[in-house]
């Protein structure tokens, strides 16, 4: 038995992880893919990948997504043959010890509803169900995608000189403190795969949105509008404006995640041509 932890996965480790994930996805009829990048975690020194080797091969791993110190999202996969043998438990102990160093108080376990073994584990851990997220995929051929949108809203890619504006907007829109906003904005600037956009209306900055493009797939995140500009079509104009720019860049594989409790956002994305593809449950446990 060998346990390792790291904050950066090389190509060989990624290949091993993807192999375990592929077996688990087929066995448990899962849809999602694990997120291994730590560049947007609030502290890039924190180890976010934990791996368990047995019989000279990788049999189990845990990946963490920790954008803020509030909580660490936990995704775990164990080969079916090695389940109920303590692999996950050993890795989880390492995870808890690591995140406590950075004063992270909660773990948020990510589990697809069709994963029988996964649901059993979160129940055994007494992690409490908190919410679900839908992963939506953009269908450019859908009727909603073809509907036009007339708006005076402008959407522009951010430059480093926009740093202070982005931080202030994020604070107001997402009710974050200065350090939280700054960490997220700076790490997005530092990333080679991410872009940030500022939305303006009549020369007034009203919204933000970000993208991450990896292997041809674009993930939209961090979309928000100042409260006084909501409810009048600006959100739809932002989404459609972003989709237009992505299509002009020949990016067709576009996804976004939305909280199942956020019906306004969910219906907004559906009206812009997105369709529900996957569901993920989130289960919280204090440590």
Please describe the structure with a list of short key phrases separated by commas or semicolons.
acyltransferase; Acyl_CoA_acyltransferase; globular; alpha+beta; Aminopeptidase; 2 domains; 7 helices
Based on secondary structure, the structural category is alpha+beta
Number of strands: 12
Stretches where pLDDT falls below 50 for ≥5 residues?
A: none
Count of separate structural domains: 2
What is the end-to-end distance?
26 Å
* β-strand amount: 25-35%
Q: Give me the CATH superfamily of the largest domain.
A: Gcn5-related N-acetyltransferase (GNAT)
- CATH class of the largest domain, anyone? Alpha Beta
Number of helices: 7
Please identify, by name, the CATH architecture of the largest domain.
3-Layer(aba) Sandwich
Mean pLDDT level:
94
GO molecular function, one term: acyltransferase activity, transferring groups other than amino-acyl groups
Keywords: Acyltransferase, Transferase
Protein name: Acetyltransferase (GNAT) family protein
InterPro entries: Acyl_CoA_acyltransferase (IPR016181), GNAT_dom (IPR000182), N-term/lysine_N-AcTrnsfr (IPR051556)
Task: Describe the structure in your own words.
- There is one protein chain.
- With about 290 residues, this protein is an alpha+beta fold.
- It has two domains: about 1-125, 3-Layer(aba) Sandwich (Aminopeptidase), CATH 3.40.630; about 135-280, 3-Layer(aba) Sandwich (Aminopeptidase).
- The protein is built from seven helices and twelve strands.
- The chain has helices at about 10-30, 85-100, 115-125, 165-175, 180-190, 235-250, 265-270; strands at about 1-5, 50-55, 55-70, 70-80, 105-110, 130-140, 155, 195-200, 205-215, 215-225, 255-260, 275-285.
- It has a twelve-stranded mixed beta sheet with strand order 1-2-3-4-5-12-6-11-10-9-8-7, sandwiched between helices.
- A hairpin with a 2-residue loop joins β3 and β4 (about 70-80).
- α4 (about 165-175) packs across α5.
- The protein is globular, with a radius of gyration of 20 Å.
């Amino acid at each position: 038995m060998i346990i390792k932890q790291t904050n950066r996965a090389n190509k060989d480790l990624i290949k091993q992880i993807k192999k375990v994930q592929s077996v688990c996805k087929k066995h448990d009829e899962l849809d999602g893919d694990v997120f291994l990048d730590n560049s947007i975690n609030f502290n890039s020194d924190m180890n976010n990948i934990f791996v368990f080797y047995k019989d000279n091969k990788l049999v189990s791993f845990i990946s963490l997504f920790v954008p803020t110190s509030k909580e660490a999202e936990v995704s775990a996969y164990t080969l079916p043959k090695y389940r109920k043998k303590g692999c996950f438990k050993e890795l989880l102990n390492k995870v808890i010890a690591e995140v406590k160093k950075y004063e992270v108080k909660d773990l948020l376990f990510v589990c697809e509803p069709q994963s029988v073994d996964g649901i059993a584990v979160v129940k055994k851990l007494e992690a409490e169900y908190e919410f679900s997220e839908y992963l939506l995929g953009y269908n450019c051929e859908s009727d909603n995608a073809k509907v036009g949108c007339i708006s005076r809203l402008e959407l522009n890619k951010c430059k480093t000189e926009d740093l202070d504006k982005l931080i202030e907007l994020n604070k107001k829109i997402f009710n974050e403190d200065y350090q939280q906003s700054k960490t997220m904005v700076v790490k997005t600037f530092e990333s080679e795969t991410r872009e940030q956009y500022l939305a303006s209306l009549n020369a007034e900055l009203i919204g933000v949105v970000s993208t991450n493009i990896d292997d041809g797939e674009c993930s939209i995140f961090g979309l928000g509008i100042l409260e006084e500009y909501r409810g009048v079509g600006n959100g739809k104009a932002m989404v459609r404006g972003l989709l237009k720019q992505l299509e002009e860049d020949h990016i067709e594989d576009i996804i976004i995640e939305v909280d199942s409790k956020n019906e306004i956002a969910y219906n907004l994305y559906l009206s812009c041509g997105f369709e529900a593809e996957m569901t993920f449950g989130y289960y919280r446990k204090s440590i």
